[in-house]
Design brief:
Layout: E1 3-11, E2 17-22, E3 28-29, E4 32-34, H1 41-53, E5 63-71, E6 74-82, E7 98-100, E8 107-109, E9 111-117, H2 122-125, H3 128-137, H4 140-147
Parallel strand pairs: 1-6
Antiparallel strand pairs: 1-4, 2-3, 2-9, 5-6, 7-8
Amino acid sequence: MLTLSCGILLFNEHRQLFLAHATGGRHWDIPKGMADPGESAVTAALRETFEETGLVFTGDELLDLGVHAYRADKQLHLFAVYRPSAAVAIEACRCTSMFEQAHTGKLLPEADAFRWTTLGEIPQYCAKNLTRLLTTGLDLSHIVTRVVPTRKNDPS
C-alpha cells in the first residue's frame, strides 16, 4: 500500500536546508510525517514540523512543491518555506513527537538534534532515498530562488 508523508523544506538566507537528526540513527531528515485521518497535506506538514522541531509556520507562507516519489511504499508531499537563520534558534528546537525504543521501552523524541546544511552536504547527512529526491528529483536551486528573498527585499 502506498502511503503519503507530508513535510517542509526550510531554507535560510545562506541557501541552507534545515535538518533534524533521527534519534538512534545516523541520518538526518526533513521534518515530515503522516497525515491524520481527514487532515490536509499542508496541515499535516505544519503539525509534523511543529511536533518535530517546535517551529511554527502558516499555510500562507508555504510554497507547495507537490507529491514526489520517495520509496516504493511511500510518497512525499512537500512544501518549502524561508526563515532567516537568526529567526531559527537551533538550540531552542525541541521534538515532542515520541517513539518507544525497542529494546528498553523508553520513550525517546523522534529527533534529537538540528542543523543547517548546505545543498552539497545533503548526501553526507541524509539517507539514500531522501538524498536521491533532494539531489535529482527536485531542483533545489530553483526552489531556493523562489522562497529565499533577495538581499534588497529580505525582511531579516
